[in-house]
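Category: protein sequence paired with discrete backbone structure
Discipline: computational structural biology
Format: plain text, a pair of labelled lines
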Amino acid sequence: MTTDRTQTLATVHDTEAFGAGLASELSAGDLVILDGPLGAGKTALTRGIGAGLRVQGRITSPTFVIARVHPPGTPDGIGLVHVDAYRLGTTGSDVLADLDALDLDTELDTAVVVVEWGAGVAERLTDRHLLVRLQRNPDGSDPDSDERTVTWGWRASADLT
């Protein structure tokens, strides 16, 4: 059983800083699954993870590609693979076939793999994963607010909840 942690983040900068802090808890071979609606801060969080890992390249939304590889910024560093599972197939078997075609399991030895929209799909890549759920403007009081709630915890791959 996992114990989830929850934190409220006031700004996009706070979301990136949270991701940078989270990076210090990650190792090559870790899978991070980001879950949340459009605009919840998944890419901002990934930018923070990339900054914390000190990877090369600008981290942007992988909207027009399925996966973007960011090599380590230092010879002994850890890389980052940023995946947009939303772009994968539309049915269960199509999604799994598309995921397999990316060969992400080969990247897991040298990189942290972050999968946006990956809940219910990417868990099968590893024995365990970090599930991070983001919700923007959690109380609904200010639609222009950048405030978001992040909840995260490690899961066994058999635990898809």
